[in-house]
TrEMBL record:
<dbReference type="InterPro" id="IPR011650">
    <property type="entry name" value="Peptidase_M20_dimer"/>
</dbReference>
<dbReference type="InterPro" id="IPR036264">
    <property type="entry name" value="Bact_exopeptidase_dim_dom"/>
</dbReference>
<dbReference type="Pfam" id="PF01546">
    <property type="entry name" value="Peptidase_M20"/>
</dbReference>
<feature type="domain" description="Peptidase M20 dimerisation">
    <location>
        <begin position="183"/>
        <end position="277"/>
    </location>
</feature>
<dbReference type="InterPro" id="IPR017439">
    <property type="entry name" value="Amidohydrolase"/>
</dbReference>
<keyword id="KW-0378">Hydrolase</keyword>
<dbReference type="Pfam" id="PF07687">
    <property type="entry name" value="M20_dimer"/>
</dbReference>
<protein>
    <submittedName>
        <fullName>Amidohydrolase</fullName>
    </submittedName>
</protein>
<dbReference type="InterPro" id="IPR002933">
    <property type="entry name" value="Peptidase_M20"/>
</dbReference>
């Protein structure tokens, strides 16, 4: 069991609040990256910068042996913060609303602890990844040769998790998070006077029918055992209240927990978009914006992570093979390229945390020593001296 010093814990809390005051968007985390690099260098690590623009990999070697990677995300969100504490964002319109400031501080704390307490044999790569939010910095790092430049047997990451109590961890041998794709549908009919609809072809009525049909796709064209979400979130049509418009635009998101289901949904949505509007004399087209794949843990590494968490200081319960979330995470790209596992670290104290991506969210500093402890214990157990 790794015992984390009080000095490292308190320092990590200060780092976290400093990052919170200076949030930066994906691929623009220049100040954040500079601070991370300086700290890692001060720990005596070999630091490599400029991977996927602002990404960093730091190497800690302690003799011959296997190697593993630990990853944290470093970017913020374009959200105006509504909190009132001293460490509120100093960049209007930007905030750390997902806890990446805390993830970064935890990984820095683990790096310092392991550099000072080398109870392992092998190599640890500390991966500070930019642009997790929507941009896909994880995919960029993989494409730029992350695993070729820094060969590792496994890679691990965490995410703080509101809704799970402090002291608890959740990890599964399969999906942890869903895939994420966006679709943009255009329905084109024939505009006319609203009092004479028979002279036109109404894309609004066709769109209403398409929305209902897409919802029934999940219950009637897919197995009820396939967990899928199709949400229509945007509609735009018309200018004048007495005119049936020529076009209707709608968009939404698709979330799936397997690649097979994801590909089936791509095909079915395109089929519905073309077929459902036809009886109304309306033409349908769909454009896709393919996003993150399923965050799929590798079974062996999930067990290794579970066992490490069960032996980490302060962890009171480990939920194994828990239900996944339909949110998405670009650590999925790293897991497609390398064995590994991803876990949730409980964030709810006596007062429940605000939800992720809320303008009132703030990372719970009480879980910083728990996160450092799990990562350090994982290294010490997997890279046994």
């Amino acid at each position: 069991m790794a015992v984390i010093s009080r000095e490292i814990i308190e320092q990590a809390k200060l780092w976290r609040r400093d990052f919170h005051t200076r949030p930066e968007l994906g691929l623009k985390e220049y100040g954040t990256a500079r601070t991370i690099s300086e700290l890692l260098s001060s720990f005596g690590l070999d630091v490599h910068t400029g991977i996927a623009e602002t990404g960093i990999v730091a190497t800690l070697r302690n003799g011959e042996g296997p190697s593993i990677g630990l990853r944290a995300d470093i970017d913020a969100l374009p959200i105006h913060e509504l909190n009132e504490f001293d460490h509120i964002s100093q960049h209007p319109g930007l905030m750390h609303a997902c806890g990446h400031d805390g993830h970064t501080a935890i990984l820095l704390g683990a790096a310092r602890h392991l550099s000072e307490n080398r109870h392992f044999r092998g190599t640890v790569y500390f991966i500070f990844q930019p642009a997790e939010e929507n941009v896909g910095g994880g995919e960029m790092m993989v494409k730029e040769g992350l695993f070729e430049r820094f060969p590792m047997q496994a890679v691990y990451a965490l995410h703080n998790w509101p809704g799970l109590p402090v002291g608890e961890v959740a990890v599964s041998q399969g999906p942890m998070m869903a895939s994420q794709d966006n679709f943009y549908i255009t329905l084109t009919g024939k505009g006319c006077h609203a009092a004479m609809p028979e002279l036109g072809a109404d894309p609004v009525v066709a769109g209403a029918q398409l929305i209902l049909s897409l919802q029934s796709l999940i219950s009637r064209r897919l197995s009820p055992l396939e967990q899928t979400v199709i949400s229509l979130t945007q509609l735009q049509a018309g200018e004048a209240i007495n005119v049936i418009p020529e076009t209707l635009h709608m968009s939404g998101t698709l979330r799936c927990l397997s690649r097979t289901t994801r590909e089936t949904c791509w095909r079915l949505i395109e089929e519905y978009v073309q077929a459902v509007p036809q009886p109304y004399g309306v033409k349908g087209e769909v454009r896709w914006e393919f996003g993150y794949p399923v965050t799929q843990n590798h079974p062996a590494q999930a067990v290794i992570l579970r066992d490490a968490a069960e032996n980490a200081p302060g962890i009171t319960q480990v939920h194994f093979n828990n239900a996944p979330s339909m949110a998405a995470e670009d650590f999925a790209y790293l897991l497609e390229a390398c064995p590994g596992a991803y876990f949730w670290l409980g964030a709810d104290g006596t007062t429940p945390s605000a939800s992720l991506h809320s303008p009132r969210y703030d990372f719970n500093d009480d879980i910083i020593p728990l996160g450092i402890g799990v990562l350090a214990t994982l290294v010490e157990r997997e890279l046994k001296a």
